[in-house]
Design a protein that fits this description.
Two copies of one chain form a homodimer.
Chain A: H1 2-5, H2 8-17, H3 23-35, H4 41-50, H5 52-60, H6 67-73, H7 77-88, H8 94-107, E1 110-112, E2 134-138, E3 148-152, H9 159-174, E4 178-181, H10 187-198, E5 202-206, H11 219-228, E6 230-233, H12 243-256, E7 259-262, H13 271-280, E8 285-287, H14 298-306, E9 310-311, H15 315-321, H16 337-344, H17 354-361, H18 365-377, E10 381-384, E11 387-390
Parallel strand pairs in A: 3-4, 3-7, 4-5, 5-6, 7-8, 8-9
Antiparallel strand pairs in A: 1-2, 2-6, 10-11
Helix pairs in contact in A: 2-8, 3-8, 4-5, 6-7, 9-10, 9-15, 10-11, 12-13, 16-17, 17-18
């Protein structure tokens, strides 16, 4: 650990970046983001259990008692640690840590770590694959503004796809939704641009460092997002956007959005990877249909057929997605905000009368009765002499 | 009954049409198809319980002991019979029966009744709403050939929709599937034409008599279907294609297909009526997606969102539908026969109480209330002080 962080220049650089904070944890996390690739579960397990600084000690010091047991418990095993050390060690250079800090300072990027007010807790759902730090150019507060919709899609988009992306993003941005995407050509670019044109509230997750505009043709778009929205990366400045980092970046897009919508995607588009992460995280997943004759929509139709994605045709239908919550996608029913209000007003234990439910939910008694009929058919609620109660969800998390 | 069938000319006409058969049952059924509209549940109940000939005796003779009890048990009630008699009596003219038989003979239409080798048992799933007879020009054996796919859609179709209809129908026909549709402009016509170009195995259900090509612009198409496939009607020759008969005809299309696929449909397209029948019958339901910017696909997207229709993009995916069977579509909204019973028990004009509906439909009051809640949400029924009434279908044919 000394090896990485003992350098006075490193500490000075860190203080410059976080003048009002205790820099020890931040520095250790930066070191982790330099030595470990995004989503490194061994690093995530160590940091989660020991804290970033002690984890760094384990990684680069002796093998402290209990570490192997910890990793065994995490399913990683002691061999995983020795393998991980082999990955990390070649990168353990204090100059790399110092350069990451300096470059961030040069481009005006902020360093976010868990516990910071703008750290997006949504990413904590990634568990041991959660990011160690985030580097942010622009309005970090957008990471915690609500609601947030992740709109993604193919780089090789059609005019139709770009049109729909712009319509949805523009309409959502106009009603206060933060538009999250990946800064790529095609659908991503169309979504960012539309949000910039309306509210500026858009977040671009890059696969490489925030100092590197990628793709090159989006240099001015990414500059504009950094000025009005937020450009965010997990790897430090200077990191190249490798294929692995693209895939790892997708999980952040999926985790940050209250819902992910794939607007256009080929049969094997990378957007399906983002969609898969969203589904795995229990985030509602939408797909925009298109002509069956268009290869650019084949991936969306695949999501509708094979992944129980919700068919989405308008911004309103995107907004309805976050009403659905985890696990409810397959039976994918509507999405009536009144349903949620009514279910919120109900108990799984106590019976409640229709009139009392009407009072609690703010819905009319007729509406309550109609909804109860529906929910009863769906096995969500149950009636007996004492009134109505909610049936506890048997669904997995 | 004598009044209708005693005419020697009528019997002679019937014998000409079915030279090798006992004509008594056939004649009584023809008389029923003349006096009762398609899907008349009172007629269906009487015929189902007593046979066509005795049912005719009840309908036009004295009120035989036990008939009212029978209708009560079927949830129709004695008032239903007296109402029905008022509907039937003005049409009880032996000349109409004779004309139906003669016209059928003149255009070479065969008369099919239950028990005939080519009677499609799939239609028996319609219960008391099953047709009494079918009039067929062309290859009646197609009605029992397997598999059969019902491909339907908007008259106001787009070039995209017609292209997809032709692709799906042509590919399905090439692999031995009978293409069932409604002979209309737009999607129906494109599906029939593609099947004619490949195998000829296509069935057109008309809303009026088989002697009347409707729409007029499809005269030569319908002639060709009669020559190579089959043109089928429930009402007798000479019957005009009224709005009601279009809606009633849709249930036959839905019931005959092993699956129904809506290829293109506006938000309130009549094809959604066919889709609703298919779902109610437990037949797998598919919908072809299209651009969200196309009003002609809005109904298909609605089926995907609200009715759990399966997203279908190729003939192979249509074929996969019949593997799915009743109720197994993704989360497959059940298809509840009770819904149909309840709606059948309701009037579009008179308000009816829950208890009365329970009595008529033979369902428990709680079940009735739950279903009403659902149907109200779906815009099928409406409640006010006087009770519940059914909202008339606003859908075009």
């Amino acid at each position: 650990m000394e090896m990485l962080l003992g350098d006075a220049e490193v500490v000075a650089a860190a203080r410059r970046l976080r003048p009002d904070e205790d820099v020890a944890d931040a520095l250790a996390r930066v070191a982790w983001s330099v030595v470990a690739e995004p989503g490194d579960a061994v690093a995530g397990t160590l940091i989660g259990e020991l804290g970033a600084a002690d984890a760094l000690g384990i990684a680069f010091g002796g093998s402290r008692q209990g570490t192997f047991a910890l990793l065994d418990a995490a399913g990683s095993g002691s061999r995983a640690l020795s393998e991980a050390r082999k990955r990390w060690r070649p990168r353990a250079d204090p100059r790399a840590v110092r350069d990451a800090l300096r470059s961030a300072h040069d481009v005006g990027a902020a360093l976010l770590i868990p516990g910071d007010p703008h750290w997006p807790h949504a990413l904590d759902d990634l568990g041991v694959n959660a990011p160690t730090v985030l580097w942010v150019r622009g309005r970090a507060e957008l990471l915690v503004a609500e609601p947030r919709a992740s709109l993604v899609g193919a780089r090789a988009s059609s005019g139709y796809g770009e049109h729909v992306a712009a319509e949805l993003a523009g309409d959502l941005a106009a009603t206060g939704t933060v538009i999250v995407s990946g800064g790529a050509y095609g659908i991503d670019g169309a979504a960012h641009r539309a949000a910039l044109g309306v509210s500026g509230a858009t977040v671009a997750f890059l696969a490489g460092g925030v100092d590197r505009a990628y793709p090159a043709g989006h240099q001015s778009l990414i500059r504009q997002i950094a000025a009005e929205g937020a450009v965010v990366s997990e790897p430090p400045c200077g990191a190249a956007p490798t294929k692995w980092r693209f895939l790892a970046r997708n999980r952040l897009i999926a985790a940050l959005g209250h819902a992910t919508v794939v607007i256009e995607a080929g049969w094997r588009s990378g957007s399906l990877n983002t969609a898969g992460h969203a589904a795995a995280l229990g985030r509602p997943l939408g797909a925009v249909p298109g002509p069956v004759t268009s290869a650019a929509s084949a991936g969306c139709h695949r999501l509708l057929r094979e992944y129980d994605a919700q068919c989405v045709t308008s911004a309103q239908e995107v907004r309805e997605l976050w009403g659905m919550g985890a696990g409810s996608s397959s039976s994918a029913r509507p999405v009536d905000p009144d349903r949620i209000r009514l279910l919120d007003a109900m108990s799984t234990r106590a019976r409640t009368s229709v009139d009392e439910l009407a009072r609690r939910s703010g819905l009319g008694p007729d509406r309550v009765r109609a909804l109860l009929g529906l929910l009863e058919l769906e096995g969500e609620v149950q009636r007996d002499d004492g009134g109505w109660r909610r049936i506890p969800a048997a669904r997995g998390a």
